[in-house]
Amino acid sequence: MTEAIEKTAVKKAQPVFRAVIQATYKENFAFRNNMAVSLITQPVFFLVQYFIWRSVFEAHDTVSGFTFDTMLYYFAVASLIGYLNWDDSDGTLQRLVQSGKFITFQLRPVSHLYYAFFEKVGHRILAFWVEMIPIFCFYLLFGIKPIPAVPGWAILSLALSFVLGFLINYTIGIMAFWLVKTNGLTRALLVIKDLCSGLFLPLTLFPDEVQKVLFFLPFQFVSYVPVRVFMGDYELAGIHMSIPQIVGLQAVMVVLTFFLNRIIWHFAIKRFTGVGA
Amino acid sequence: MAHTVDLPSPEGQQIRTNPVIQWFRIYLHGMKTSLAARMAYRTDFFMSMFIMMVVELGGPLVTVLIYDNGASFPGWQKHEVLLLQGVFLLSRGIAFPFFMGMVWNTIMRVQEGTYDLLLIKPRSILQMSIITAFDSEDLGKLIGGLLLFVYALQSVPALPLANWLSFFFLFIFSLVTMFAFGLFMAGLGIIWIGNYRIYEIFMTVMEFGLYPRSIFTKMFQTIITWVIPLSLLGSFPASALLGKPITDVLPAVICSLVFLLAGLWFYHRMVRNYTSAGG
Fold it and tell me: Considering only CA atoms, which of B250, B102, B110, B104 is closest in space to residue B170?
């Protein structure tokens, strides 16, 4: 009986989620110029990185196992994954809790987690052609081909990192149920996440002890692992793994993070009170 | 019974008080108001300030990791690059809390329609935009810059007074360049409604100032000296302090003054273009 109800709920939910994706896409389409700012910032940022590493590699053939070309490839792919994974679910949830508007979601027959996830899907579909494709072309002009060594595994790894990135951000956003205004904390945690995920730098550049810690955290699976899957080999803290092994581990991390999210949510939602909104 | 106080007329005030002192008095008042408002969420304020400080150290972290992995920037030792970045962050740390807030203030007010309230005040719009935008949590940037600067100085032998004087001279122009950047951003914020990513554009461009000028190609060195004086943000003042040979200082200084004048012209031009329906 319960299974039947759940199946009916899922069937009913599918059009709702499609509607959320479409609405988010259309809403943000009106502000596509904001998104298009990345077409200025990313090439400039990449140029800075290019000069830094060109200068460094003038005197060294390899740095921490990376050559000049693989380093540029790393930054190119990491930036594209960064655009794919970006979301503001933490900020959105915090604003809803702070303003009390979250109460309207308590009245809707849709889980806010899934609602927020499909908002991200809609937003990122727009980003795909506004930000990612032009930046991809920029890299091609620069002689960098961000094409994966093993496309099937790379697509799977990207999908998992997309979900994991969302779950981490959403879990951070849940802190709003305790602190109400969490801009500072959120910014702190997001910086830690980005730094530890390898978005700014390959994690193998960090000292060995730090790498060992990073290996056991979920953050590397958001950026570093998908980039390494693109490159066709994985290594961190002296641990080498095959591509299927690391993608499998990534899937396990997604499941663990999902359950962690649900546990925290269970306690957080009990703290929420709202009147009217 | 109501009490009335005879306030001096604006003309009378200006006769009695030096305009610069008056400017600072109003600015201090703006600072106090901003701090008081931010203290409503103290934990968040201190957390934000701490994060600002930590985030600022992201660039130097790259430098530390590069040097710790046995690599380097040719001609620059680790502590020298860190000093350069400390100077850059110090300049940004002064600019952001004290006058760069005019950018978000302008963008927000134009978007909300409250920019008109500043325009009707009996002060210049630029002054009002700065006064009402003291960004207290950005003080974290200043602390971060100071910490890095002092840390990097520990590894430098005692420096002659001449180096310090040249440093301070060039550092003033670093702030002038930052202010010009702020003017361009605020001006853009008037016509590019609600786009907070204007910050991102300029912050990314400023990244060129975070590294030694010598790592760039000749063409880029020319651009960051003669067109947009980014070399003044870190590279030139740090080189002057360290006693390293520098070329093209004068063109960069002149360029920063031209950049400031262009920024002022652009800002006021954009203000003239501003239209609204009364907020």
Answer: B250
* Residue B219 lies in domain: 21-273
ipTM attached to this prediction: 0.82
- Is B45 in contact with A201 (Cβ distance < 8 A)? no
Interface touch B211/A52, C-beta < 8 Å: yes
pTM: predicted TM-score of the whole model, two decimal places: 0.85
Residue A197 confidence (pLDDT)? 92
The answer, yes or no, to whether residue B12 has pLDDT greater than 80, is no
Structure token pair of residue B117 = 């309230």
> Into how many domains does chain B fold?
1
B-side interface with A, Cβ within 8 Å? 41, 43-51, 54-55, 58, 61-62, 65-66, 68-74, 137, 192, 194-195, 197-198, 200-201, 204-205, 207-208, 210-211, 214-217, 220
Is B4 inside a domain boundary? no
Chain A residues touching B45 at Cβ < 8 A? 184
Q: Does residue B12 belong to any structural domain of this protein? A: no
Higher per-residue confidence, B274 vs B14 = B274
Between CA B75 and CA B246 the distance in angstroms is 13
Q: Quick check: is B119 in a domain?
A: yes
Distance CA A185, CA B51 (A): 8
CA-nearest residue to B221 within chain A is A51
Query: How far apart (Å, rounded) are the C-alpha atoms in residues B197 and A33?
Result: 10
In a domain, B185, yes or no: yes
